[in-house]
Amino acid sequence: MPGDAVAGRPGGSHRDHAGETSHPGADLAEWAADLVEPVKPKLRGWLHAAMVPASLSAGIVLICLARTEQAVLACTVYSVTAWLLFGTSAIYHLGTWGPLGEAVLRRLDHANIFLIIAGTCTPLAVLLLPREQRTLLLWVVWTGALAGISFRVLWVQAPRWLYTPCYLALGWAPVRYLSDFLHTGGAAVVTLVVTGGLLYSAGAVVYAVQRPDPSPRWFGFHEVFHALTVAAFTAHYIAVSLAAY
Ligand SMILES: [Zn+2]
């Protein structure tokens, strides 16, 4: 298969987003894992590819049913970040891009994680928070997202154990607003927001520790991570929908 062409190349293997190790010494364990298990699982990328039309139609429904101009704008921002996330991931994971293409797509793929965090917070803040808190939360998550993206772009070889917690920190920043979400959105919205947060966090942990890895040939740890992001996105989408309609 095409992905095999990069097998065994340190830092470029399709086994995972392993491009942060530009030379074997940077992370020997990860590089060794790439050599032992060089084949890209056959289902890599397909879950997110399926989410491209799904999130596109879901986003259009959400935007059409949003009740105010501000809500339409916030839901559009949210939907665009979702399309970017799933679209870039599908393109990145399904194709074979060569070292430069892979490096670029990998950065975009990781930048999109920050964007989906800020993108998800945007309609929740606009729909559920009073003006002052809304402004503060939007500043925090969008500044955090841009800072996170700059960090990943400027320090391309940052180790996984350092940048994965950054996603978690930004993702859990809105936790202080849960009581406001409960007050305006109700128990179902808060439950879904927390469930989505926990699912994304579980995905981050799986990505960081690279376990469980059920079937390295077909459905490895990275696919588990992708499945958790799909479940998390679904929970958050329902929460935003409940708040928007
Ligand atoms: Zn991925």
Describe the protein's architecture and organization:
Helix 2 packs parallel to helix 9, helix 5 packs antiparallel against helix 6 (160-171) and helix 6 packs antiparallel against helix 8 (187-209). The termini are far apart. The chain is mainly α and 245 residues long. It has nine helices and no strands. Residues 1-15, 17-22 and 32-37 have low confidence and may be disordered. It has helices at residues 28-36, 46-65, 69-94, 98-128, 131-154, 160-171, 178-185, 187-209, 221-244. The chain binds zinc ion (ZN). Residues 17, 89, 93, 222, 226 line the site of zinc ion.
Instruction: Decide which structural class fits the backbone.
Output: mainly alpha
Uncertain spans, ≥5 residues at pLDDT below 50? 1-15, 17-22, 32-37
Count of distinct strands: 0
Mean pLDDT: 87
What is the helix/strand order?
Answer: HHHHHHHHH
Q: In which range does the helix fraction lie?
A: over 70%
Helix segment count?
Answer: 9
Using the CA coordinates, give the radius of gyration. Answer: 18 Å
Share of β-strand residues: under 5%
Shape: globular
The small-molecule ligands in this entry are:
zinc ion
